[in-house]
């Protein structure tokens, strides 16, 4: 009895030694900063004459009473609700097209993936030229049909939508790569068998293709959700959250609060709320979604 226990203890010690570097990295770059952020959110904003004081949950009450918080949260929810499904649907359509046997298929795949290779700052500056009132490409095309100039980034009705278009254009090609890789692992015999059974293209896609792509779809969905709350760079170039906070998103507001207004406690409060939201997404992924999409 003692010998098996000794072997088991050695295996546990060896396992913990293998996990130690990962635990150290997560502690330094994730756990400790998260705890420090939560602790900072419990203090008031300090100045040179008046140091920060412990205020408990008062900063959270101020955040909930701030109408800007609810506006930014609504913007981010709309942003995620539109960008995620549209970019994923476009990625799947592009992958289906790029997976077909056709001439110049490599060039088609490269064209779809090219926007992904551009840095977000470069992509934002490119679309800034497209959106320029009266001189931009979009208004030049609109003039051919008799339409007037539109300030796409300067009015609340179109600013957030214009930012969404840039993100969809940038991310669809990246998600396409994962769908394309998944499509190439599906045996062609399944399509032949479906045809022999008299299944239409729509029935094959709904009954066979989409279920087999479910794990890839879940992976892309989680990445798209994370991307929807970490947008800063091209928002900074295009609108800076304006006009009148119409295109401001959560992470940009955190950056603005911390580094433009130098209000570290308020930024910490927003960061804690963001981490809780991402944590809820992670719990949903591991406890519910993965059980439904992985087939053994």
From TrEMBL:
Gene3D superfamilies from the UniProt entry: MetI-like
InterPro entries: ABC_transporter_permease, MetI-like, MetI-like_sf
Highest taxon in the source lineage: Bacteria
Keywords: Cell membrane, Membrane, Transmembrane, Transmembrane helix, Transport
Gene Ontology BP, a term: transmembrane transport
Transmembrane regions: 12-35, 77-98, 110-130, 159-183, 204-226, 267-286
Record's subcellular location: Cell membrane
Membrane topology: Multi-pass membrane protein
Official protein name in the record: ABC transporter permease
């Amino acid at each position: 009895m003692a010998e098996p226990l000794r072997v088991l203890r050695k295996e546990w010690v060896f396992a913990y030694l293998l996990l130690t570097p990962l635990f150290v990295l997560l502690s330094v770059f994730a756990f400790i900063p998260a705890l420090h952020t939560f602790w900072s959110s419990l203090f008031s904003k300090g100045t040179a004459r008046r140091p920060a004081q412990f205020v408990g949950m008062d900063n959270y009450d101020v955040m909930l009473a701030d109408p800007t918080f609810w506006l930014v949260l609504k913007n981010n929810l709309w942003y995620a609700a539109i960008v995620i499904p549209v970019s994923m649907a476009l990625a799947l359509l592009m992958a289906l097209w790029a997976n077909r046997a056709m001439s110049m298929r490599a060039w088609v795949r490269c064209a779809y993936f090219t926007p992904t290779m551009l840095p977000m700052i470069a992509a934002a500056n490119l679309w800034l030229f497209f959106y320029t009132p009266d001189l931009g490409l979009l208004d030049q095309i609109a003039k051919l049909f008799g339409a007037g100039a539109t300030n796409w980034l300067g009015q609340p009705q179109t600013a957030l939508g214009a930012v969404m278009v840039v993100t969809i254009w940038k991310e669809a090609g990246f998600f396409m790569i994962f769908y394309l890789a998944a499509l190439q692992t599906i045996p062609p015999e399944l399509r032949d068998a479906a045809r022999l059974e008299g299944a239409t293209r729509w029935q094959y896609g709904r009954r066979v293709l989409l279920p087999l792509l479910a794990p890839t779809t879940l992976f892309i969905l989680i990445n798209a959700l994370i991307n929807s709350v970490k947008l800063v760079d091209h928002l900074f170039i295009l609108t800076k959250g304006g006009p009148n906070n119409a295109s401001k998103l959560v992470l940009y507001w955190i950056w603005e609060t911390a580094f433009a207004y130098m209000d570290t406690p308020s930024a910490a409060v927003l960061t804690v709320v963001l981490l809780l939201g991402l944590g809820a997404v992670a719990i949903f992924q591991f406890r519910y979604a993965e059980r439904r999409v992985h087939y053994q």
